[in-house]
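Table S4 entry, Riboflavin synthase.
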Amino acid sequence: MFTGIIESVGHLRKVERRGDDIRLTVASGKLDLSDVKLGDSIATNGVCLTVVELMSDGYVADISAETVSLTGFSHYQVGKAVNLEKAVTPTTRLGGHMVSGHVDGIAQVEDRQLRGQAIEFWLSPPQELGRYIAHKGSITIDGVSLTVNEVQGHKFRLTIVPHTAGETTLVDLKAGDSVNIEVDLIARHLERLMTYGSQQADAAPKSEVTMELLARSGFLR
């Protein structure tokens, strides 16, 4: 589990194709790796990756074909800057929102504008994800926890304050770029609970007991 508060911007030192999978070597920048061990998770541009090799200034992780197909890693190259965050601990401040590191898909940056000192972006996600995106709700963009400031159809607007821009890769985004997105975790689970309950109700055998039957049988006066 993560918070979407980025701890460091690193870069890809090596991208090794292994069939449909990818093995990455990530230079971790200022990320403190002193408490990281093999098997720990580090969110890399919003994707929860497991550390399989550890160096003093970076780590190695494997990406499955399933993850490659849903994220921008399919076209990342050596030198690509990536947002990094270590998994939360019981004492971590939850400064962003609950982020699983399980990316839902890729959104396209439609527009970038300066608004005072802030940067405004309009993004277009896959249409099927639009139902999870709400005005003033939370969303994760390349691992960064952000607030949705406007929604039009399935498209949405974000406002990036200078501190967030300067501490993440978002400062370099421009129209036409692609980003990994993870929708709100609670919204996904609520939808599943609602649809599952409806499906179970439809599948349940229908009772033959009616008010008329109860009256004929003397149960109703």
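The mean pLDDT is 91.
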